Amino acid sequence: MFPVIDKNRTGKRLKYLMQMKGLTPRDIQKYLSLSCVQTVYRWLEGINVPTIDNLYALAGLFQVKIDEMVVGSRQQDAALPDAGKRRMYLYYMRLCGNSSGAAS
User: Is 30 helix (H, G, I), strand (E, B) or coil?
Assistant: First the structure.
């Protein structure tokens, strides 16, 4: 079986990243110059996934790697941090004085 993107879990991950940055779907729409905010809602609901161009732009906005936004069926995808681990990581980075929280 070939690897596939889990749209629902990817949408949840995007929603979480937006919450971490205090962004709304309208903010994302404006940042990406999308004509309709519904596009963002479709991503968050797991109906669609962003294009690679939009993923690239979002990775910069969220200060994460694209692989940290996309959840799929590959073995290595399971090793990416879940929401709880991510919160702990960001808390640790703040304690250490690195406010960006971006993975190295």
Answer: helix
Total Cβ atoms within 10 A of residue 60: 10
Q: What is the pLDDT of residues 13-66, one digit of tens each?
A: 999 999 999 999 999 999 999 999 999 999 999 999 999 999 999 999 999 999
Give pLDDT, residue 100.
52
Q: Where does 1-104 have alpha helices with state H?
A: 7-21, 25-32, 38-44, 52-62, 83-95
Give the integer Cα–Cα distance in Å for 44 and 46: 5
Q: Which residue has the tokens 């993107």?
A: 5
- Cα separation, 31 vs 26, in Å, equals 9
Residue 46: closest CA among 6, 4, 83: 6
